[in-house]
Task: inverse folding
């Protein structure tokens, strides 16, 4: 017996773009299809879609028609919610809805991103691996804007990627050839009116974020002005370099954003956060010691700065 599956607005909208329906028509179509479906694992999907991700790693499969990625229904744990819709190409062709093939190698930037659907899994990985906004909808928009700057298709994955996930091609972004930050394994079986789908998000900085604090300390260089600032904030015996590395080794964590209430440094890519200080750092991707300290600041804000931050939040809430 097919479990209860609710159709979300996102699933209806994606189906509508593929099928040429209104969202209401698409919802009615999906609801009619649900009883004939069966719940399967991702590796049981048809071969072009095998390995796709969902929140539960389960899909409702309607053979030869579509698959719905499933999440647990918050209101009814025994049921599911369809968080998206994959209408199969064979069904679109059979019903005369197939679109002309787009060659991803002939477009780039915003033009390429117009053809790309960002899977739910890719957005989650962007949030985790690239400092994306915690709200998935905002992160999706943020991701699309960022990739639209210089996205391009490539036949080979970059050397820095460890993933061996199968893909029809790769979308690279965030720098020129050989210095890109992002790699997205892509499928030519997209959906929601877009012919390609980003399956996951790989970021070049991931190995840095996996380092223990002691190993992270060895990956930082300290200009003299930053050492002087550190010595002023954290005076003590021994060389400032040794004490600085010891502080990072003890509690240093690499973060995408500065501690709450602190502004972003204009040249920083990441932030090394410790118990009482934090360090904005630049990133030299190809260096063996890739992090360059730009400044050192106290983590705790002064009373005046905390009041200013509170007033900014209050003012923003009022005008929005």
Result:
């Amino acid at each position: 017996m097919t479990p209860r599956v609710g159709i979300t607005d996102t699933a209806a909208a994606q189906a509508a773009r593929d099928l040429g329906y209104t969202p209401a028509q698409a919802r009615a179509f999906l609801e009619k299809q649900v009883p004939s479906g069966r719940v399967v694992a991702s590796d049981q999907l048809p071969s072009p879609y095998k390995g796709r991700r969902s929140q539960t790693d389960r899909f409702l499969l309607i053979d030869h028609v579509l698959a719905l990625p499933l999440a647990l229904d918050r209101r009814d744990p025994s049921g599911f919610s369809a968080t998206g819709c994959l209408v199969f190409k064979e069904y679109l062709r059979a019903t005369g809805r197939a679109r002309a093939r787009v060659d991803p190698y002939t477009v780039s930037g915003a033009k390429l991103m117009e053809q790309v659907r960002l899977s739910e899994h890719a957005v989650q990985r962007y949030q985790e691996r690239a400092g994306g906004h915690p709200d998935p909808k905002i992160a999706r928009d943020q991701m699309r804007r960022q990739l639209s700057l210089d996205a391009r298709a490539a036949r080979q994955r970059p050397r820095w990627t460890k993933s061996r996930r199968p893909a029809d091609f790769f979308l690279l972004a965030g720098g020129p050839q050989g210095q890109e930050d992002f790699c997205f394994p892509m499928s030519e079986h997209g959906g929601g009116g877009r012919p390609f789908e980003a399956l996951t998000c790989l970021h070049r900085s991931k190995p840095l974020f996996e380092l223990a604090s002691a190993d992270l300390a060895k990956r930082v260089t300290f200009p003299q002005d930053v050492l002087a600032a550190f010595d002023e904030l954290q005076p003590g015996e021994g060389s400032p370099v040794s004490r600085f590395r010891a502080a990072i080794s003890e509690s240093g964590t690499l973060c995408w954003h500065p501690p709450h209430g602190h502004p972003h440094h204009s040249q920083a890519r990441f932030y090394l956060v410790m118990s009482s200080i934090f360090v904005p750092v630049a990133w030299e991707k190809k260096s063996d010691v890739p992090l360059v300290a730009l400044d050192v600041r106290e983590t705790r804000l002064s009373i005046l700065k905390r009041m200013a931050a509170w007033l900014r939040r209050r003012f923003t809430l009022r005008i929005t």
Q: What stands out?
A: The longest helix spans residues 303-319.
